[in-house]
Amino acid sequence: MHKPIISRAGRTVLPLTLVVLLAACGLNPTYDKPDLPLPDAPAGEVVEVAPKWWEAFQDPVLNNLVDKALERSPSVELAMARVDEARAVLGITSSEQLPQVNGSAGASRGQRSESVYGAPQSIANSYSVGLSASWELDLWGRVRNSTAAARANLLASEYALDGARLTLAASVAEQYFALQSSLAGLETSRKTVETRKASYELRKKQFEGGITSELDMRQAETEVATARSQELDFATRVNQQESALSVLVGQSPRELFAEGITPTKQESSKLVAAGTVPSGLPSDLLLRRPDIQQAEQNLRASQAKVSAARAAYFPRISLTGFLGLESGQMSTLFDSASGAWSFAGNLAMPIFNSGLTAAQVDQARAQEKAAVATYRQAVSQAFADTRAALRNYQAAEQKHAVLAAEQDVLKRQLYLANLRYNNGYSSYLEVLDSERSLFQGELSLEDALRQKRVALVTLYKVLGGGWQVPGQDGKS
């Protein structure tokens, strides 16, 4: 007789169960990554991110400075603190996925109301000790999606830390190369001062011997003062750049250079290996930039938050239980007869909350749209930055090559000017012009080398740490 009833119940429960499961699955969508038109990777090209890209410059002083900066920088410490915070938030949300068990103990003494219980008033004691547990059945994925969002936020904070380190390392390298260039300019200025002093002393003796005019002597004297002025300018620039570098590294200039940290002399030959840019860089290398990875994780978090917010439309089901001992007398609390337990299920269904849930879902969806836009913008900006950085590096490389070739021409020009002057075919002004051209050419060449190195640093930076062919280390 009961089979039809059971059968009818089965036919009712089964569809309801399927509806519940389908609804639960609908609240846990897969990650939807925006489809972006990216250039294809060159055929057969395989490159990887170089973790310590600055080591490609083969400069131990630079390596030391970057290591010090990464250890002491407040910006890196701030990013690390945010990673710790995000990790703690993940721990908080993850804990909601498991039952919560608490120990409890209590003692009370009270008088019961005769009007309520219909019995004479009496004073009673109550003692209890036991364990209580509670667990939310996460059928709709509220906790699960909140945990997924927290996990994505943790990854985003870790990528932000990578970005802070990348930016700091690039800043140290750029400032270090600027200091190198100024030191080279200072050395060139000092040599020029000594050369022009010798030239002035020669013109002075020639004037006193009646061989040359006072005008030639005074012109040589003026050139000494000009060279000395440029020497002082470079000395000031060196002091300023040392101070800026010390701020990045986290040490005073005196402490920094008391340790014997002297910038290595610039050598263009060391840029050959560091500046060997692959013929084509695959787009997936660019997508590993910390800022793009951070934007993508923020997008993942926003999508998970939408699902978590939508779960508020459905009832929250939780289970609670108690297992312990209860007694009216302390002496009998631990007797076997004092055992007690309870088990209960609770369901909380939202009925009316003045549109709160709908507003929270709309807020989450708006945040998702913003995250999508941020991700698209980050990718577009990354490709624009990379294209500009590649062109700037190529231009800097060509400029350095042109100025390097010009040096031989300027030296030959000065030789011929001296030869013509000594043989009486031209005035001393021609010699001075040639000396000025050579001096400015040397300074321009030093600055071009700095520009080339900075352009290469920028290229490493926009690529999220540069490139590395598998099987090679960061120094090759």
UniProtKB/TrEMBL annotation:
Intracellular or extracellular location(s): Cell membrane
A family per Pfam: OEP
Keyword vocabulary terms for this entry: Lipoprotein, Membrane, Palmitate, Transmembrane, Transmembrane beta strand
An annotated Gene Ontology molecular function: efflux transmembrane transporter activity
Chief location category: membrane
GO cellular component: plasma membrane
InterPro entries: MdtP/NodT-like, OMP_efflux
Membrane topology, record value: Lipid-anchor
PANTHER family according to UniProt: CATION EFFLUX SYSTEM PROTEIN CUSC, OUTER MEMBRANE CATION EFFLUX PROTEIN
UniProt record similarity statement: Belongs to the outer membrane factor (OMF) (TC 1.B.17) family.
The protein's name: Efflux transporter outer membrane subunit
Protein source organism: Chitinilyticum piscinae
